Structures are given as C-alpha cells and as structure tokens.
Amino acid sequence: MTITADSVRTLERTRIQAMLANDVACLRKLISPQCSYVHTTGRLDTGESYLASLGDGLFRYEDLSVSDQAVTLQTATAVVVYRLSARIVIDAAPVVSESRCTAVWAERHDGIQVIAFQATPVKP
Prior knowledge:
The protein has helices at about 5-20, 25-30, 45-55; strands at about 30-40, 45, 60-75, 75-90, 95-110, 110-120. By secondary structure, the chain is of the alpha+beta class.
C-alpha cells in the first residue's frame, strides 16, 4: 500500500475503532512494535508495551472523539495532527482527557504503521 492522505485517514479511523473495541490484534498490524508512544502523562511506551498494557486491561477506552485533523505527507511518511477528546478507565478510575496528538505513519515492509505517537494535554 502506498501512503496517501486518504489511506492514512482511513488507517487512523481504523486505529481509533480498534482502540475502542480493545482489538489488540488489529492494533498490532497498525502500530510498530518499536513505536515511541508518549502518553499525556509523559509516560513512554514502545508499541509492544502499549499493546501489552491494553491487552492486560490496565486501561480501557470508553469514548474517543477526533477533531481538527490534518495530514502532511513526506515521501513514505505521513504526520497526522489532531485534537482528541477521550474518556478512559485507568486502573479502574475514570479519566477525561483533552489532548493534541501527533501520529507518524510510515511505509514499512509489513505495511503502513505508526512509528511515533505523542499526546499533549490541553485545557478544554
């Protein structure tokens, strides 16, 4: 698959739906195991450790709403920035989060995957 703005928008929608469904198998195809994944708290995960935490039930996404999305293409890479409103359960405690996110998608030998993700908290 060649990386295009439309293909990345579709992959982002699929990733968000998989996060809500706790579909770790789908997310494994979309997120590189070596991905640098920075949460709003500043916690750093790899793609592998992020998916392990999700699979172990350490957190669960209840609602995710994306707005103000923009995609910038650079050769075999796409940078997606957007605003994310989220309701998450972390260690059995409900959390509401507003953040600006950056996801970097890249063409890899096994398809297009997220290789870096960063969420920065913003005031609602």
